[in-house]
């Protein structure tokens, strides 16, 4: 059974394991599933059912590549969020995997070499406490019965009890929580059953545990792969454009949470109108807005930018036409040009086209050699088409116009006239 097998076929075979008590290999190609699936799993492939499994190549940590089996434990939900394909009032085929089924499927995929780690997310049918019990049971089976030491990312549901948050964070490599909006007032408009304070409270409880675990490891306590304590850091998700919240208020909330520690990064999902939801006729958020938020987030996490250094337009949003680092550079002519032979690493990293690793290489190289021209900079990793206009080398300007002034950019109002597209599924479903 080669690795080249089509993803759909792999997933069908994995689903056939859901009820297979033999704990063995997935059914072979061409064989029928070992037992008929129960009604709650028969519609997993129907249109609009949001198939519960997929396999994705991800980078959960810098420098780490990993195939994750991503599992949606159930697409049933008692909540009625206006933007969500799984909302209570929407008619769609509902499916539910029990913890033992989820574990059997994952162990089957692991044995086949189709994945190395697991990501579990879920709707919330009924009480959040019951959903958390099921998630904990799945993780306990994996860690304590099957001794699985690899990466597990699990989505915590708002309203979990303190003891449940402690248990699941102890068992997971990473926990996450969807905040959806940066404040309670706007969350209430799109998710009337959700309480921002409750979500934030749940996130805070997990975040504190992650910080404690990381501190204990930093003080020399060896990590326990079966109980990693969420040490990979939390993530959180926002739906962008479903509420009137500006990028400034999203970035403000994100940066406030980063400052308290324990959060690895934020996810931003551009809103998409889903068929048969109250927001079906609302326009989709431009994908470029999501991209700009990720770029701004990256500047804060990796480049040392503070939230209040970012450049926002009159509406409090990041300019769509200019990437955030270029927008900052253009707003600060007093900081340029930067002299490559003498500038500090922190000054170099602020130049468009120079990242942290490249800035380090420049500083290391110039202590033993003289940098003479654009080709030397290119060799060190500088994107010279972007950087040249912001640099001098030995007092000489490398280019008189800046990259951002040479190019015509895609502009936001080019969206005008694009027909409204309505979707069956949101890209945020599996984040
Ligand atoms: S966003 Fe979450 S809680 Fe809200 S309806 Fe969708 S699955 Fe349920």
Would you kindly provide a written description of the structure presented here, covering whatever features stand out?
- The chain has 431 residues and is an alpha/beta fold.
- Among the domains are: 216 residues, TIM Barrel (Alpha-Beta Barrel), CATH 3.20.20; 83 residues, no CATH class.
- It is 34% helix and 12% strand.
- It has a seven-stranded mixed beta sheet. Strands 8-9-10 form a three-stranded mixed beta sheet, with no helix packed on it.
- α1 packs across α2, α2 runs parallel beside α3 and α3 packs parallel to α4.
- The longest helix has 23 residues.
- The radius of gyration is 24 Å and the shape is globular.
- The chain starts with 6 loop residues before the first helix and ends in a 25-residue tail after the last helix.
- About 4% of the residues have low confidence.
- The site of iron/sulfur cluster has 9 residues, from loops.
Percent helix range: 25-40%
Distance between the ends: 30 Å
Q: Give the count of helical stretches.
A: 14
Computed structural class: alpha/beta
Summarize the model shown.
The protein has 14 helices and ten strands. The chain has 431 residues and is α/β, with parallel strands linked by helices. Iron/sulfur cluster (SF4) is lined by residues 77, 79, 81, 84, 86-87, 123-124, 191.
Write the layout of secondary structure elements.
Elements: H1 7-16, E1 53-58, E2 66-72, H2 99-112, E3 117-121, H3 128-145, E4 152-155, H4 162-171, E5 174-180, H5 184-190, H6 196-218, E6 234-240, H7 247-259, E7 263-270, H8 287-302, H9 324-331, E8 338-339, H10 345-348, H11 356-366, H12 374-379, H13 384-387, E9 391-393, E10 396-397, H14 403-406
The protein binds iron/sulfur cluster.
């Amino acid at each position: 059974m080669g690795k080249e097998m089509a993803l759909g076929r792999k997933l069908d075979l994995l689903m056939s394991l859901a009820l297979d008590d033999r704990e063995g290999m997935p059914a072979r190609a061409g064989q029928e599933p070992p037992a008929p699936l129960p009604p709650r799993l028969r519609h997993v492939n129907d249109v609009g059912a949001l198939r519960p499994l997929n396999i994705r190549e991800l980078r959960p940590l810098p420098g780490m590549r990993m195939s994750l089996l991503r599992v949606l434990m159930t697409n049933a939900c008692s909540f009625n969020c206006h933007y969500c394909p799984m909302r209570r009032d929407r008619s769609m085929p509902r499916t539910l995997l029990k913890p033992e089924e989820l574990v059997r499927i994952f162990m089957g995929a692991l044995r086949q070499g189709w994945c190395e780690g697991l990501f579990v997310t879920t709707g919330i049918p009924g009480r959040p406490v019951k959903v958390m019990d099921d998630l904990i049971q799945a993780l306990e089976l994996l860690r304590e019965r099957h001794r699985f030491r690899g990466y597990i990312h699990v989505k915590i549901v708002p309203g979990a009890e303190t003891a449940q948050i402690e248990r699941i964070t102890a068992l997971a490599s990473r926990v996450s929580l969807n905040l959806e909006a940066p404040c309670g007032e706007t969350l209430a408009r799109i998710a009337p059953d959700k309480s921002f304070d409750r979500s934030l409270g749940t996130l805070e409880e997990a975040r504190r545990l992650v910080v404690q675990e990381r501190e204990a490891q930093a003080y020399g306590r060896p990590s326990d792969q079966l109980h990693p304590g969420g040490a990979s850091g939390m993530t959180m998700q926002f739906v962008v454009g479903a509420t009137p919240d500006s990028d400034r208020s999203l970035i403000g909330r994100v940066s406030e949470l980063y400052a308290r520690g324990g959060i690895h990064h934020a996810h931003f999902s551009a809103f998409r109108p889903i068929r048969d939801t109250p927001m079906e006729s609302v326009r989709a958020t431009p994908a470029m807005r999501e991209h700009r938020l990720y770029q701004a987030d990256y500047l804060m996490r990796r480049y040392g930018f503070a939230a209040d250094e970012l450049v926002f337009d009159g509406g409090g949003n990041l300019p769509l036409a200019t990437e955030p680092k270029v927008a900052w550079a253009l707003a600060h002519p007093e900081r340029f040009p930067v002299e490559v032979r003498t500038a500090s690493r922190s000054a170099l990293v602020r130049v468009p086209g120079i990242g942290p690793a490249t800035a380090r290489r420049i500083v290391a190289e110039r202590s033993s050699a003289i940098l003479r021209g654009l080709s030397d900079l290119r060799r060190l990793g500088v994107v010279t088409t972007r950087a040249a206009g912001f640099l001098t080398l030995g007092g000489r300007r490398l280019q008189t116009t800046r990259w951002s002034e040479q190019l015509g950019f895609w502009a936001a109002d080019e969206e005008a006239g694009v027909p409204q597209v309505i979707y069956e599924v949101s890209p945020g479903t599996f984040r």
